[in-house]
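Input structure tokens:
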């Protein structure tokens, strides 16, 4: 069972669509392994987006992420990283088709509403940044055969 990291950015809470977005992942058969709402510190945001440091959009991305609480979660399922990336759609809104989270809900590329790990290495790093092992809630999924 693969795990991946997903973060719903401040715009999701500001627009009150957290349930709708989370529902997309669950309807696809992904399982919530860990979930919390938090206000990130500047240090945490900079660590999370370290690979973008120096790019023209970096400071605006940091400020947007600091503008309100985020919902951080770990989703798990078969090929969870790929499944989540397909559900979220491309980062550039011009490329995000209807039916994807970004295509249906995001208003501007720079104010993107969701972050999703793009590789196993990113997922591992991001999960460790946001969650301690004791924050995971293992549970039996009696519906596993339905998906």
């Amino acid at each position: 069972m693969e795990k991946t990291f997903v973060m719903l950015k401040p715009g999701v809470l500001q627009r009150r669509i957290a349930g709708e977005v989370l529902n997309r992942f669950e309807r696809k058969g992904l399982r919530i392994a860990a979930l919390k709402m938090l206000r990130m510190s500047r240090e945490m945001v900079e660590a999370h987006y370290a690979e973008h440091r120096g790019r023209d959009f970096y400071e605006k991305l940091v400020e947007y992420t600091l503008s309100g609480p985020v919902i951080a979660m770990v989703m798990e399922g078969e090929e969870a990283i790929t499944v989540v990336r397909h559900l979220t759609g491309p980062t550039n809104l011009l490329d995000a088709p209807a039916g994807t989270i970004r295509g249906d809900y995001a208003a501007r590329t720079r104010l993107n509403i969701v972050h999703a790990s793009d590789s196993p290495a990113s997922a591992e790093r991001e999960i460790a940044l946001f969650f301690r092992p004791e924050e995971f809630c293992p549970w039996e999924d009696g519906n596993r055969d339905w998906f």
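The beta strands are 2-8, 31-38, 70-77, 114-116. Residues 2-134 form a domain with the Alpha-Beta Plaits fold (CATH 3.30.70.141).
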